[in-house]
TrEMBL record:
Residues 588-842 form the EAL domain. Gene3D superfamilies: 3.30.70.270, EAL domain, PAS domain. PROSITE patterns: EAL, GGDEF, PAC, PAS. Residues 367-418 form the PAC domain. This is Histidine kinase. Residues 168-206 form the PAS domain. It holds the Pfam family PAS_9. Residues 446-579 form the GGDEF domain. SMART domains: EAL, GGDEF, PAC, PAS.
């Protein structure tokens, strides 16, 4: 970047121009035009080179730090404008002179270490003192790099003045010595490298400890603001080293066990990174002594806690909200509200509007209101909120006040109100009180859930042990449920063995499902009544507002639907309501409503499934099976509508019709010369509950002039436990008529063996559930074998239902079962088709089996 090179260019071009002119004069025959073009091209290239040199010079002079260009021996080849100003020398007075002119303290071989580093491809950095033209000195930090110019190795040296940094360091030392905040510098071994006078004064440091912090634990014990001892990894300084970020304003306590001295500090830890490092090498700990402030704050917080009163301050202009620790505890939200909107979100809608109205009238001197809210755990709370403007705030930008927890008073008032609506037996809410409470909460805008609870097998205890034991069970069950619920919900009794729980659902279905699990688990231990123990479980249905209903009646109804679905599918569990359940409920209601009209419309019919001798396949009887020919749904099997008929009580009328039709058909077959074929009829437990079954059977037999053994009544094991004395009397009377009595689906239901041995029955029917698994399933084989053994010991006949394969038939014969029915032999047949089979079976009428 020498200035002489650009200045010499025009002279060179002038000489070249003269030479060309002389050539043209000496050689007239030479064509001048190409030479002129060559001359124009040279002028263009020279102009471009001059512009580039000018730009490079401008950049060189624009650098803010002094820059020297040195040759290999240290002679200055060039100096930028910042250098002339810094050294107070002209460029001509420096160029061509050794670098010692600017730094007279350099040793003779000062370039040797420089070139050693540069030859290795590194830069070289050194702090030296340079000299101005007047002899004054100033410190600089010189960065050197190698460069090749015109095939010559050179050094570019950039000198950055350190005067400002030295002044800053001086000011820093003065600041550290004068401020009242302690400052400690820790290295990675947690050794204290330096401490300012304030740190010595606050901590009582006489000498800096040489061992790392933590190796002197008998001197200091570090605790958090709640008094819990902190491990080494929990120290804020360790967090700053570990995370590489500032740990701001942490309150810690330093306790000296030997002197019982306790110092409270507010500490900010700042990590320091050295150049090229990705982890902090040091951490500055800046701290203030807050011992007195902490002591006063602790006393104030203790007073607030005892009175359940917290403080608050709200800046209307920024919407920032400050809450004391007790106020945060009362609200029970994590993280605590930091603005007024977050506080409003803790309240119920009606209380939100009440607080907004109070805040929107700043001209009033203050307000005092009571508000209702929900904690993070779903529990309701009540607070008395007092607020007033800060003195001197004419525009009421800042409001301050107190929060007081008045939940207990409201609960006491609520309990007084609820006592008038309690169930006298269990002490929980009665039906009216519970529905009123649910309606009130919904009206206030709360999201609520209803848990409909029905006790499984309650009737067993009530009937076997008496109503007194049933009442005792209800009280014990209510106590267990209240313990499981705690204060998360409200329990009430709807009537009988049905209960209802209502709870808040601000956090979705989480709390209702938690309560359902807790309620189911509370029934796990058996209930003891003297020496006897009974297992009672619960089926629970859940409905949540607003998705499952907006009114108390809708919620309870849908929870009942979900409970019914649970009881039907599994029992001892819970189900959450869905629209599919509602549709099934609607279908059930439609079926039940149409059942009442089916008899009048003659929509019912009977088919007959043959009962055969497994040894030769001869038909020895039949079972009457109901069918319902629906005008829209087609033919319906009994399993689709019998349960509905039992629930509505219509099964009694339907059962009487089946008895009449079966007896009529037996008589018709007999009149057709097919003999007296016994027909089995299924009888519901509800038919046994009344006094009409015996009369209906006797009337049907007499009307069609049939002997009693022409009819077989099949009933499930549920009959055995509904009303044992009355059931036994009815069965004895039927047996005296000659009617055969069998237990259907034996082993699948209650299996009340203690009643079986006392009842006047003739036989057992093995459930198809067990027949389906034989002979492959060992468990089903064992059950079948056990049933045959029970029947043999009690001298009862055995019939197997649901035989579908020859292997099942052969297996049953080996077990000693000689009679059965199933698809292997025939499905349900019309009366005419079964009559045709009877004709094929015998060419002459079968003799009466009277």
């Amino acid at each position: 970047m020498s200035e002489s090179a650009p200045a010499a260019l025009p002279a060179t071009l002038l000489s070249l121009q003269q030479a060309l002119q002389q050539l043209c004069a000496a050689q007239p025959q030479v064509d001048v035009l190409p030479l002129q073009q060559l001359w124009a091209l040279l002028q263009q290239q020279v102009s471009e080179l001059q512009r580039q040199l000018h730009d490079q010079r401008a950049i060189f002079d624009a650098l803010p730090d002094p820059v020297c260009l040195l040759d290999e021996q240290g002679t200055v080849l060039d100096l930028n404008q910042a250098g002339t100003l810094a050294y107070q020398r002209s460029r001509q007075g420096v160029v061509g002179r050794p670098i010692h002119l600017l730094n007279p303290d350099l040793p003779p071989d000062h370039l040797q270490p420089v070139w050693d580093e540069l030859n290795r491809g590194h830069s070289y950095q050194v702090e030296v003192t340079n000299m101005r033209s007047d002899g004054s000195r100033f410190p600089v930090e010189v960065h050197s790099a190698a460069v090749r110019l015109s095939q010559q190795r050179c050094i570019v040296a950039v000198a950055r003045q350190l005067t400002g940094r030295w002044q800053a360091e001086s000011h820093y030392r003065l600041l550290m010595e004068s401020i009242d905040k302690g400052v400690l510098l820790f290295d990675r071994q947690l050794r204290i490298c330096s401490a300012n006078p304030a740190a010595h004064r606050i901590l009582g440091l006489e000498n800096l400890p040489r061992q790392p912090a933590g190796d002197n634990d008998h001197h200091w014990m570090t605790i958090d603001e709640h008094g819990r001892q902190l491990s080494r990894e929990q120290w804020p300084v360790c967090q700053a080293f570990r995370d590489g970020r500032i740990i701001p304003s942490t309150v810690i306590g330093l306790h000296q066990p030997h002197s019982d001295r306790l110092v409270w500090l507010s500490v900010t830890n700042v990590p320091i990174f050295e150049q090229g490092q990705d982890r902090p090498q040091y951490v500055y700990a800046l701290f203030s002594d807050i011992t007195d402030l902490k002591r006063d704050a602790t006393l104030f917080e203790r007073a607030q806690s005892l009175a359940h009163i917290g403080g608050w301050e709200w800046d209307r202009s920024t919407s920032r909200l400050y809450l004391t620790r007790e106020a945060q505890h009362i609200l029970g939200r994590q993280p605590p509200p930091e603005d007024m909107q977050a506080l409003l979100d803790c309240l119920l809608p009606a209380s939100q509007q009440l607080l907004r109205d109070a805040l929107e009238h700043p001209q009033q001197p203050g307000f005092e209101i009571e508000l209702q809210g929900l904690g993070a755990d779903g529990r309701c709370f009540w607070i008395r909120m007092i607020g007033e403007t800060v003195a001197g705030q004419r525009q009421a930008h800042r409001l301050v006040g107190t929060l007081q927890d008045v939940t207990e008073r409201h609960r006491a008032e609520e309990m007084l109100r609820l006592q008038a609506r309690t169930d006298p037996l269990t002490g929980v809410l009665n039906r009216d009180g519970l529905l009123e409470e649910l309606a009130r909460r919904l009206h206030q805008g709360q999201r609520c859930a209803a848990l409909y609870i029905d006790l499984d097998h309650f009737k067993l205890i009530n009937d076997v042990l008496g109503h007194s034991a049933g009442d005792q069970l209800l009280c014990l069950a209510a106590t267990r449920m209240m313990t499981a619920i705690g204060n998360r919900g409200l329990l009430g009794r709807l009537g009988g063995d049905e209960f209802l729980v209502i709870c808040a659902t601000e956090n979705g279905h989480e709390l209702p499902e938690q309560l359902a699990r807790a309620l189911v688990a509370s029934f796990t231990p058996a209930f003891a009544f003297g020496p006897q123990r009974f297992t009672v479980t619960a089926s629970i249905g859940i409905a949540c507002s607003p998705g499952h209903g907006d009114t108390a009646a809708q919620l309870v109804q849908n929870a009942d639907v979900a409970m019914y679905d649970c009881k039907k599918t599994s029992r001892n569990g819970w189900c959450l309501f869905n629209q599919g359940m509602a549709q099934r409920q609607q279908d059930r209601l439609q079926i039940e409503s149409r059942l009442r009209q089916a008899l009048e419309q003659q929509a019912f019919g009977l088919v007959y499934q043959p009962k055969v001798d497994l040894r030769d396949g001869r038909i020895i009887g039949a079972e009457a099976l109901m069918r319902w020919e629906h005008e829209q749904l087609g033919q319906l099997r009994p399993d689709l509508f019998i349960e509905h008929a039992e629930n509505t009580g219509d099964i009694v009328r339907i059962g009487n019709w089946v008895l009449e039709q079966a007896c009529l058909q037996i008589r018709q077959w007999r009149d057709q010369g097919l003999g007296l074929l016994p027909v089995a009829v299924n009888v519901s437990y509800r038919q046994f509950a009344g006094d009409e079954l015996l009369a209906q059977v006797q009337s049907a037999l007499n009307r069609h002039q049939l002997p009693g053994h022409a009819l077989e009544l099949e009933f499930t094991e549920r009959v055995l436990i509904e009303d044992v004395p009355a059931t036994t009397a009815c069965l004895n009377a039927l047996r005296r008529l000659g009617v055969r009595l069998s237990i259907d689906d034996f082993g699948q239901g209650y299996s009340a063996l203690n009643y079986l041995r006392r009842l006047p029955i003739h036989g057992l029917k093995i459930s198809p559930l067990f027949i389906a698994g034989i002979p492959e399933n060992r468990s089903d084989m064992a059950v079948c074998d056990a049933i045959v053994g029970i029947a043999r010991s009690l001298e009862l006949a055995v019939v197997a239902e649901g035989i579908e394969t020859a292997a099942q038939r052969d297996c049953l014969l080996q077990l000693g079962v000689s009679h059965g029915q199933g698809f292997l032999f025939a499905a349900g047949l019309s009366a005419d088709r079964l009559g045709a089979r009877l004709r094929q079976q015998c060419s002459t009428p079968c003799p009466d089996r009277e």
